[in-house]
Design brief:
It is built from ten helices and 15 strands. With 321 residues, it is an alpha/beta fold. Strands 3, 4, 5, 6, 7, 14 and 15 form a seven-stranded mixed sheet that branches. It has a six-stranded parallel sheet with strand order 10-9-8-11-12-13, sandwiched between helices. Strands 1-2 form a two-stranded antiparallel ribbon. The mean pLDDT is 94.
């Protein structure tokens, strides 16, 4: 099969399309013939997996796929060959990929394959972050980076949960689009004092929960605007490392900061109860995805550059043609 792999060279890294062996599903896995690939910021990561000085092996990036089930393992009962599915995978930039059956889902009724490919990583990240934080009706949640995939998903899910939603973004236009998705108000973090603005929006009480995909200085501003009992869930951090914080000091106010990984959280939801709720919300129109543009997967390099430039609101998707 054809796959796009990251190759690491002395002059940096590059994406190459090449022939690789087709994966075989284990007893608990599903083999999916890829039709569309959701592109995420995690795809841009070039983290080393071997010791310095050793050659980094090429690898297939990508976390989101939508397509048709080709074959299933002996223990799989939630889908069968020919079913249209979407999934969280490791190595989505390929004509075929394997997914754990727990991480393989039926798309909402009537949804296009390209829209379905945009869902898993960002909507599940937001959902399980809120579950980790025990978000409940009446809370005030701050969803950073309204224009990111997780921000776009998180604003809508939090609103559906009956939460007061605040958001942030780097431009007034993106803040306004976040408001259109359901946020009550937003903060442009490229100017002004973020902490001061958040405290003003909460009558000096602070926010109950933060979904932080940004990191850097925004993380510090977030901690200073956290209400007693406030919770921060961190995912990624494209604006830089988060500063050190004192757990004991946070605990004195019953506050905490925790990081989460979507694969671990989704696999623990063995009966897919989180997706059952979100799927119903999609089918009633309470949730929607935003796919800014669809590209052929032969343009993977250009698509990643577009995402890295922050020229995307929501998601971009690649079709495998």
């Amino acid at each position: 099969m054809k796959a796009i792999r990251i190759h690491f060279t002395d002059n940096g890294d590059e994406l190459r399309t090449e022939e690789v062996p087709q994966p075989e599903p284990t007893a608990d896995e599903v083999l999916i013939k890829t039709q569309a690939i959701g592109v995420n910021r995690a795809d841009l990561g070039r983290r080393r997996t071997v010791s310095e000085g050793q050659q980094e092996p090429p690898r297939i990036p990508g976390l989101d796929v939508a397509g048709v089930v080709e074959t299933v393992g002996a223990n799989v009962t939630n889908c069968r060959p020919g079913d249209q599915v979407m999934a969280l995978v490791r190595g989505a930039y390929a004509e075929y990929s394997v997914a754990n059956s727990v991480l393989t889902f039926r798309p909402p009724e009537g949804m296009s394959t390209t829209d379905a490919a945009s869902l898993p990583c960002v909507f599940f990240t937001a959902w399980y972050a809120f579950q980790m934080a025990g978000l409940k009706p009446g809370d005030t949640a701050l969803i950073h980076s309204a224009g990111s995939g997780v921000g776009m998903a998180g604003i809508q899910i939090a609103k559906a949960l009956g939460v007061r939603v605040l958001t942030s973004a780097g431009t007034d236009e993106r803040v306004e689009r976040g408001r259109q998705l359901g946020a009550e108000a937003g903060v442009n973090y490229s100017r002004g004092d973020v902490t001061e603005a958040l405290l003003r929006l909460t009558d000096d009480r602070g926010v109950d929960m933060v979904l932080d995909t940004v990191g850097g200085a925004i993380f510090d501003a977030t901690l200073s605007a956290l209400a007693p009992g406030g919770r921060v869930v961190t995912v990624g951090g494209h604006s830089g490392e988060r500063s050190q914080y004192e757990d004991q000091r946070l605990a004195s106010k019953q506050q905490w900061v925790r990081s989460m990984g979507v694969f671990n959280e989704a696999q623990e939801d063995a009966d897919q109860s989180g997706w059952a709720q979100m799927k119903a919300w999609f089918e009633t129109g309470m949730l929607r995805t935003i796919v800014q543009e669809v590209f052929p997967w032969t343009m993977a390099g250009e698509v990643q550059e577009l995402l890295a430039s922050r020229g995307v609101f929501g998601k971009v998707v690649m079709e495998v043609r």
